Amino acid sequence: MEMEKKFGVYLCKGCGIGEAVKSESMHKAIKKEAKIQHIKEHDILCSPEGLAMIKEDIANEGINSLVIAACSPRVKYDEFDFPGCIVERCNIREQVVWIQPPGGEEIQSMAEDYVRMGAARMKKSDLPEPYQTECDKTILVIGGGMAGLSAALHAANHDYDVVLVEKEQELGGFGAKLHKATPSSYPYTTLQDSPVLAKIKEVTAHPKIRVMTGSTVVKSEGQPGLLDVTVSTNGNEETMSIGAMVLAAGWKPYDAAKLDKLGSGVSPDVITNVQMEEMAKAGKILRPSDGKAPEAVVFIQCAGSRDPEHLPYCSDFCCAASLKQALYVRQQNPNAVAMILYKDIRTPGQTELFYKEAQSDAGVMLTKAEVTGVGLAPGGKLKVSATDTLLGQNIAIEADLVVLATGLVPNTVDDPIINLEYRQGPGLPETEVYNGFADSNFICFPYETRRTGIYAAGAVRQPMGLAMAADDGVGAACKAVQAVEHIAAGMAVHPRAWDETFPDPFMQRCTSCKRCTEECPFGAIEEDEKGTPFFKINRCRRCGTCMGACPERIVFFKDLNVDIIGSTIKGMEVPEVDEDELEEGETPPFRVIGMICENDAMPALDAAALHRLTLNPLIRFIPIRCLGSFNMEWIKIALNAGIDGMILLGCKYGDDYQCHFVKGSELCAYRMTKLSETLDKLGLESDRVQQFEIAISEFDKLPGLLDDFVARVIEIGPNPFKGL
Amino acid sequence: MNAEQKILVIGGGMSGLTAALEAAESGAQVIIAEKAPYLGGRVAQLHRYFPKLCPPTCGLEINFRRIRENPRITFHTLAEVTRISGGAGEFQVTLELKPRYVNDRCTACDACAQACPHERVNDFNYGLDKTKAAYLPFDMAFPQKYVIDASACTGDCGRKCQEACQYEAIDLDMKPQTLDLEVGSIILAGGWELYDAARMDNLGYGQVKNVITNMQMERLAAANGPTVGQILRPGDGKAPKRVAFVQCAGSRDENHLPYCSYICCMASLKQALYLREKDPEAEASVFYIDLRTPGRYELFLNKVKEDENIKLIRGKVAKVTQKAGSQDVVVVAENTATGEKLEETFDMVVLAAGMVPSTKAAPAALPLSYTPDGFIIPELLPQGMFAVGSLKSPLDVTKSVQDGTGAALKSLIALGGRS
Q: Which CATH number fits domain A1-127: 1.10.3110, 3.40.50, 3.10.450, 3.90.550?
């Protein structure tokens, strides 16, 4: 039910606003143009006294829709939080007073514009009502290796039902096949038993975990909270209801057969680190060719890894693993020698202490080397040739056994694994950009994926060893249980975890153009048999990309839609000047709208204000949740209103994108390429509307960037539609 | 989960913030205690992250917004935990809140700083400049509230700041407060300190002009830093054309830090790119023992290698000295591959100083087990208590976040699970 709105505008006079802005004229603008009669001002609106004044109005006058014309919404947020009320913050301090020189000519019109625009936005906005559906909170974990076991165990210990699906007949993954694990706890110098075995016991005994071995996920339909997942166990299919997933499907060793340069296939005595581990676990390291215990073992590091022709990345675990296997060789035979040939020894963090320990063994030798070949030598031996070593320029080493430290390949490289029945495809998108890994590309938010409620953990996410995988599973489990709780409560998940709004399309006017279904970065929009889109809200992250994409303007959020922002734009006053009154060579005052990303461009503008940089006074900024929600209709509205130009400030896009909705700024830029044609056809210069990338830290670039843009608009000349 | 019980997160850096937010967004009541006057910790001082070269304030902004929007999180700045007793489910904690001398009425208008006659060394910029005794730690500080450094405020100016403040926000008589809390579980997230580079006599820090640390380099590159983002050497303010990066400055050295500090290789490669981005003619030489860019950071290394003006030299730096009669710096290194000695002159030297857990100098407020290097041994922590991030082992930001997320779930379980 929509509430009856009672408006109030509250003007702050503190922080220089009172001295800079004429309040009489402000009142007039609010009363006449914004048509709000209830206006109050205070010398320090955020002070307890100022707030008491507002709260009194809420209690006694029934004011429930407020414009706070004061400072940035990023500050004094607790003070100006009025539960149950619509609150629109107009940033007169940072976006007017602090970025203009004292006595700046445009200050008054800027402040009045912002209040009118804020009033328009407030009037059109509504309080959110959460979208709630029934919700199953069972967590599905795919993969029974270290990461998956750890995820399952922690979700179950937090009292969630867990289904653990493992494709092998046994749990444990590679961790269960180890003879010993590299040290992961103090003193970081001694080999440890694989921690996987204890985890398997805990998992199989846990009453809240259902283990399904020999099983794979063949189909996942629906949306988080309401996923129907079909699991095939040795050919028998079963469909179950799932809330969220942890994808911990692990890795496979890089195919050694491709490494003929390193002697693969030359002799059975050229083996991989996985084979070495199997032998050690079986109790005896022996040459496959003759069953003899080797006296000299050479380990070749980066066998496939760090090689553009094979795996361009470093596989992370292999240096420590070879050090460990060198110790196996030494423990089996104190007279044996193990030599490790490396590009760089990578034992970061505390693993360095293990490296030092292994290095102190006289029978473990290490040298940097570029291996040039592995061949047969007399007496059934092998010969490893290398250049550029610490032992000399060109060396040849005889070995009884050569171990190739092959790297890891994530299982997501050629298998979607989760098999989503989503219009945009069965797997996590664009894993090819990350060498097949289900990487998030966010440094600050490593568990983010582009499929809501599905979190990757372990070696499918990044190359990592056993200890890291165990930790990684816990974090992914945390995100999964959080996702089902948010979905049940009707709230968004990261990065808008507080948000109760959601896209609500007016389907009668949908033309099935499918732009929304194609552009949604999170695959949240499906199509029925007739090709009509329908929204799966639980998959949605609330970026508003669908709203931005929709040419029919039918996607509505309670606090953001095409009309709300259109009305906000129209709140800006475009000065009308009779051409006859202009002096020779004089132009009418120009006006520009700035559409800005609220997470990055807006704080950058605030920082510019804090540094008291002067910013161009002809621009009025409107923050939106992401440039992905930018609808081209707003350009039409602005140009029709006589506004001369529009500047869009969004995040960096491309491979190292910074957009928290992954594709928002990029999609906006894509739409803008189409715009140029349209504007050119109308006889309007496309340079009037431009998008720029600005990072949150680049406040120092703003003065020049904004001035240059405005100068370009002035150069083009006034909007010919002005005054029409 | 016992709804009455709270989680205390000690430390408001990236791993602590993450742990707190992930726990709160999972339904827990969380309190953050941070000893600095702002949240964000070490990452707030970084210009950009490797490998994406994106600004840390971007993710911090999201996290601060999550705090603003979440009624289940409270935080205290200038807060130190002085006592912890009890056990899981019923820890008694005493927080000491140092006076900020500025109350919640502060609007960050800057009038106090303008009026203040005294200066202090700017620790946020690693001593590269000064602020007034009344100051805002940095432009993106959260909370956006000024603070007065009592050690720099001599009190003899006649309370100029108080006079200048129109908001009654200055309270020079503010007293320390203690706060007693009862919490169900505790997450230790105290982060790390930079190893004191002056302790390596041969590397010249503090003796040789224009030898700086990697963290100082971050501040020099940042637009909100002491040089407004111009990389200028501190000795004479000249833009350096030739810069040497000395890896393992303290790390992997039995006499200093026996472990590897994890981030320094990537950080120096990143900083070489800062230099190159600011000055297309500048040259960087990185002296290293092993280049450690694990996992997909290898691709970042490859990107850096494409730049012909960045030289990667396998060699341990033996000595850094002042060039006689000059501001320049002489670096002597031994190429470990060839054994030959190199001697080269640079305009500036950046020491890739290592990471020391904050518990090394300031152990937690109850007896815990530490490694000889001051890291917490997580297996030996009391029940209901967890350590995250660099308190256990050196690591990068993304792994701290990963670890913080896991710690959130572990502490929720410690409170008795969901039911």
A: 3.40.50
